[in-house]
Amino acid sequence: MGSSRSLLIFIFPFLLNLISSTTAQDDGICTNTAYYCWKCSDTGMYTPGDMYQENLNSLLSSFSTNTEISSGFYNFSKGRDPNKVNAIALCRGDLSQDTCHTCLNRSTDILLQNCSRQREAIIWAEPCMVRYSNNLIFRIEKEDPVKCVPSPNPAKNSQQFELVLNPLLSSLSEKAASGDSIRKFAAGHATVPGGETIYALVQCTPDINQQNCSNCLKEAVLDVPGCCGGMQGGRILKPSCNLRYEVSLFFESTASSPVNIPPPVPAAPAPKEGMAQF
Q1: Among residues 230, 170, 241, 160, which one has the least CA distance to residue 200?
Q2: Start and end of every Gnk2-homologous domain (predicted)?
Q3: Domains, the chain, ranges and CATH?
Q4: pLDDT per position as a tens digit, 150-170
Q5: What is the pTM of this model?
């Protein structure tokens, strides 16, 4: 009994550390429906009423009132060091300007309410993302923090589902990465044999280059099994890229195109016992 207790005392800290490390890979807080998720950075604080806050409020409010940019991507700075604020806003590639502005306006309000003194923070809404920092964030691929939001519903046949989902996301990622400095976005759908139709979209902030966008999305796709494996939908949210897939249409149908998924190559039969192999 004594030896068992000693072994448990020895193992428990290790298990606790393992659990903490796994949990730390999924950052941020979400509303009950996960329509909004945000992360307040601990890199520094500003004083309420100071110049940094004034620059921040002015900068974030400019996103939802800017009518000159119709691409849904904004990257602005305001002020001078040490009170300079850099900010990025990105709307989903299929949104109208009015819908984009509505999302940005609500998202910035929630972000400022919940990260009221942080010098760096990010919020993801389903249709848009806003982030700001006192550090340089433009044209830099950033994959942390990351937030994973799985669907509550399991796929009908998880193996068949993944055989369609993985190449669908890979195809869309390649298309999005090849976009220009205004838009890096792709949406499409494919049907699971005898099962659901998967609708998916991927997107990068278009200030990063093709290689960085490709890298970010590849890592996001690799996060899917640990986040949403076997489920009918999920979202992987990062500062420089994001992806989402569902079995119902969640974006404008005009943005979607069918993606041809080649049938999986059947596994070679095992050699019969006693047969020579060359």
Answers
A1: 170
A2: 34-137, 143-250
A3: 28-133 (3.30.430.20), 147-255 (3.30.430.20)
A4: 999 999 999 999 999 999 999
A5: 0.84
